[in-house]
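C-alpha cells help. One example:
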Amino acid sequence: MLCIVCTETVTSTTEAWCGACGNVYHLNQRTDLPGKDCGEVWINEDHMALEFACFRCLHPAPGALDDVLDAAEASIETGLAVAEIEAAAITGRLAHRRTAGGVYLFIRRDVREFAGLQ
C-alpha cells in the first residue's frame, strides 16, 4: 500500500490508518527501528482511546472551495476518464477524500499534477 501523504510504500511496522480520511499513512510504531512519520497518534482524553490522523488531514493545504473537485469535474479538468481517476484514487496514486455517500473529492492541484498538467 502507498502512503496518502508521501506516496511511498508502507510496511507493517509503519502502517497506520487515518481516522479522518480513512487512508493509510506512515507512522513508525517501533522505537528500535528507523522510520518516518506522515501523521500522528494521540490519546483522546474524552474517549480514552487512540486517535490517528495523517498530516494531510491535520494540516490541510490552503485553498478555496473552488479547488475541490469531484470525479466528474476532475475528468473535465484533465481529460481523463472518471473511471481512471477513481481507479487512481482507490490504488493510492491520487490523493482524495471520499464522502459518506461514496463521492470522491480531489484538490485541483493534485489532479492536475497526476495528469501531468502543471
